[in-house]
Amino acid sequence: MQSVSQAVLLSWSVPPAATFALALTAVIYLRGWVLMRRAGVPFIPPWRAFSFLLGLSSLWIALASPVDTFDGFLLTAHMLQHMMLMMVAPPLILLGAPVVPMVRGLPVFAAREFAGPLLNWRVACRVGNALTRPVVALLLMGGVMFAWHTPRLYELALASNSWHQVEHACFFLVSLIFWWPVVQPWPGRSHWPRWAMVPYLLIADLQNTTLSAILVFSDKVIYPSYEKVPRLFGLSAQHDQSAAGAMMWVLGSLPFTIPAVVIAIQCLQAGRPIPSPSRGAESAPLDAMVSLSQKLSFAGRILRRRLSAGSVEAVSFLVLFAASGLLLAHLASGSSDDDDLVQRLHETSGPFTVTVFAPAGELDAGLSDFNVLVQDPGTQQTLIDAKVQIHAHQTNTSAASESVLTTTDSENRLLQTASLDLPAAGEWILGITVAQGTQRAEFSLPVSVAKTESGFSIPWSYVVLLVISVVLLLTYIRRHAIARREVGENSVAERGRAATLP
Asked: Which of 17, 201, 226, 484 is the Cys-Cys partner for 332 at CB 3.0 to 4.6 Å?
């Protein structure tokens, strides 16, 4: 029988869609990096590729490790997850200078028709330049961080897996914007002198310290959900909150203060502001770098290929896009998460305290997931070796269902889980039997089951894929319509000049 510590370390909640997306990103980057190295481009050395992969790995660990599994039980775990999403993964990814390798690693058709025009689109360039200005990036970082840590939004993320994913996306994307002026990934342009990054980072650390101090010195639990959930590791909700704030205060300050100290030392040693990485010894002037990246991604030899070769490129891209898009949409729609389950029962009987987690509100007729946590009522120690059975019967009929719970299928190995079939709508009584050695206790939980509504519905992931496909198609049509119009205007101008010649 495994121990509680072993069960905690085995509690991985691997998200299939995110795992596939990160793996695909790594493949595209590595393909572009290899092609650039073969072309003799010196601006992306191996350590940058390693940094990029390390950043993707840290992002995956934040989403799949026990840190994610226990974020609904421990504020400390949740804060550690946020720090990985905001302070570890983004700077490591940007140190990999991902823009040009990612474009170069795409299929030729995608790079030529979509990625290249998007990166060279004036509107996109202006928006990117505006967002990565240090003042804007600093305000975005602070605003998003404080907004999502307000009790209302934080509780919303805890109660809904979908909103939890939105929260993670906001943290990660805004952090990429924040770290952009600090890292200055090639071939970016610096808006401020290098020494200005020292106060920039110290102000960000002040924001982090302010939020940390609120958690440490608050005399009440800020997020009520942590008061309601069972305490798994002996920490009260108040102590857990203080520990989360202290960890964020100490560990969370290091990603800001260490780069600030390094940059300050570099500036003092040089006797003048150190140029940004885009203008250092590792890179050429910006215009030359942009020209080189354009040549790599949209080389003239590609544009001069025959129509048959272009058709093959287009068909290959469509096949790859459809296959990867459909697989990603399927993984996103088919994945389930324990975050969607809410606490439905917390009761002590005899030698056991039992907490039951199930979907909120009325259950749909059919299979429903139930998670059960068994604890010692005196010590709050988790009893993972307890045997749990769950059965259900409908109050006004003879319909019944039964299941034996197990920890092997649960993301959280401290919980025991099972899918119970409730075939008919109506009022049901769930009976939970817990046994350990000679000790035994029974619990009951009334639930309402609604008739499953029949009808056709499209999962949101497929809707997103359809929207992206339409946008890409319209982009392709618009780009070629503009190109044909420009060719026609040039032809008319040439004929006009030829007619005026004597």
From this structure: 17
